[in-house]
Design the sequence.
């Protein structure tokens, strides 16, 4: 019984979150496996290069003679081979990455030429440069020069460290092999965890689509006939810009906040200024990028409507209301945090309504870029009434924001005449035109709504009341808070969600947590933003692996 009460949409979101997290972790372990495999391949070649360096060092030592102004071809070839071998070893088995010590301070070609001209050993850092001469106890060390001058004592250190390299490499190969096994097992575990949850998600989605196939198919068919599809690359480009905008925004907010904190701690003035100015510039730049890219990065709304598998919620309003619905900054935030408020009123309202179905609205004629929020459908001027009438019949709910306009009142009168009252909600805006709207509303209903008294108690300037209707089309008015004597909630959109919840409960539609749904959707948006950072880490690791493989 408890499981049956859990909304299907909540179950789908939880399943999707588990699958997405498992897939991300699987990608992480798969990339780690690839990097370890490449490291193991490089280590396999290290002993051969170490032997080549030792042989070249012995060759150089056998032909080296102090004095003179020219370096023989044999000396130059041996020194070049040493330099190349040591560079390869440093790349394949770096000291900071493994327990292999193949580092040494080899002379450059110019140092060797200087020694050949003067016969003088350049000064060495640290211990005695000839500390590594051969002895009876260690015959593997290189013998000193006959003239008692040893310009290549560091080659003795090189031979000492490279002599034990095969043993060190064998140990490192074993460790890296264990890493490969561990990473690949973690990858398989993540895939195994994600697979059953993905199957459960797929089954639920397909079942929901079949259940509402007729209603959704009709709406999608209407939309496809009137809305052309854009190029495939358009959304990909703007998704990338959106990710960049989010990174700029949140890095700027964090940097600016750190600048404010550093100011109070008396940190260096230049650092404080850099953090503050850089934070403001990045946050503002990210906000501007998001304002441009976010509306263009949204998924194909008609495809999303088809994939939702739910009957839509039709949202009718005056086109003049779109300006107020696009306002942001509903949550009182201070400092740079105000830049993080990016959702419009309509976006927040669409997340509330999304608990019943995707929100669909009629688009303004000639509109080049639909705003975020409801899915816009565009109809020719000579067929829009019949199209809206069909949408009303196919929708799960019809929400009408009352306002000025003859077309809007035709839609309301058509709903009163042809749509069951239990699926119709009306929103009363605030403002000076409210008395005239209430008078017009009362003229369309069989009895006065009584909204005038209720809206006086509302403190919401965007939406003053939500109305539902009983089977006789008598209005039930629910004022939108904050009411007199009440504290303001998180945002006006949360107050609208609470009033909407009460209005639906009055007609027998009980849906709890609409305001919580709004919060969860915002948390999900923040989660997508934060996911940008580990995705960037994955991208960097992929690039590193690509560079390593090319070497």
Sequence:
């Amino acid at each position: 019984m408890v499981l049956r009460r859990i909304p299907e949409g909540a179950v789908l979101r939880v399943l999707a979150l588990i699958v997405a997290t498992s897939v991300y972790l699987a990608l992480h372990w798969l990339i780690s496996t690839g990097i370890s495999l490449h490291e193991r391949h490089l280590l396999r070649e290290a002993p051969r290069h170490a032997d080549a360096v030792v042989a070249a060092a012995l060759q150089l030592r056998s032909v080296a003679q102090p004095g003179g102004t020219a370096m023989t071809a044999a000396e130059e070839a041996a020194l070049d081979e040493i330099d190349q071998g040591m560079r390869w070893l440093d790349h394949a088995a770096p000291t900071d990455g493994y327990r292999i010590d193949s580092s040494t301070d080899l002379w450059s070609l110019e140092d060797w030429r200087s020694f050949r001209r003067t016969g003088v050993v350049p000064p060495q850092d640290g211990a005695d440069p000839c500390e590594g001469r051969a002895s009876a106890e260690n015959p593997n060390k290189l013998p000193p020069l006959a003239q008692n001058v040893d310009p290549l004592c560091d080659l003795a250190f090189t031979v000492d460290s490279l002599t034990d390299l095969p043993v060190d490499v064998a140990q490192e190969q074993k460790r890296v092999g264990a890493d490969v096994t561990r990473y690949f097992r973690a990858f398989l575990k993540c895939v195994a965890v994600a697979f059953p949850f993905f199957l459960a998600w797929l089954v639920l989605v397909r079942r929901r689509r079949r259940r509402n196939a007729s209603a959704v198919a009709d709406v999608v068919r209407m939309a496809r006939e009137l809305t052309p599809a854009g190029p495939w690359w358009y959304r990909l480009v703007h998704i990338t810009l959106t990710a960049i905008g989010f990174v700029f925004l949140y890095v700027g907010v964090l940097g600016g906040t750190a600048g404010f904190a550093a100011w109070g701690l008396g940190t260096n003035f230049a650092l404080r200024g850099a953090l503050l100015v850089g934070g403001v510039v990045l946050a503002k730049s990210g906000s501007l990028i998001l304002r441009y890219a976010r509306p263009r990065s949204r998924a194909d709304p008609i495809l999303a409507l088809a994939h939702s598998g739910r009957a839509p919620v039709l949202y009718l309003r005056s086109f003049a209301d779109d300006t107020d619905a696009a306002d942001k900054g509903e949550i009182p935030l201070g400092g740079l945090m105000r830049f993080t408020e990016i959702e419009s009123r309509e976006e927040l309202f669409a997340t509330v309504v999304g608990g019943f179905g995707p929100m669909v609205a009629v688009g303004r004629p000639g509109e080049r870029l639909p705003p975020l929020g409801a899915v816009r459908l565009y109809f020719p001027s000579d067929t829009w009434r019949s199209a809206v009438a069909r949408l009303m019949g196919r929708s799960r709910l019809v929400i009408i924001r009352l306002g000025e306009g003859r077309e809007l009142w035709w839609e309301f009168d058509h709903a009163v005449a042809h749509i069951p009252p239990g699926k119709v909600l009306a929103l009363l805006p605030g403002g000076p035109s409210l008395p005239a709207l209430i008078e017009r509303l009362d003229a369309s209903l069989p009895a006065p709504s009584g909204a005038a008294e209720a809206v006086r108690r509302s403190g919401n300037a965007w939406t003053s009341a939500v109305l539902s209707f009983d089977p006789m089309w008598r209005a039930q008015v629910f004022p939108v808070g904050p009411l007199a004597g009440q504290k303001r909630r998180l945002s006006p959109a949360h107050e609208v969600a609470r009033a909407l919840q009460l209005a639906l409960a009055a007609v027998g539609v009980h849906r709890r947590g609409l305001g919580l749904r709004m919060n969860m959707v915002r948390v999900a948006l923040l989660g997508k933003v934060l996911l940008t950072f580990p995705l960037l880490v994955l991208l960097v690791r992929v690039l590193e692996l690509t560079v390593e493989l090319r070497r």
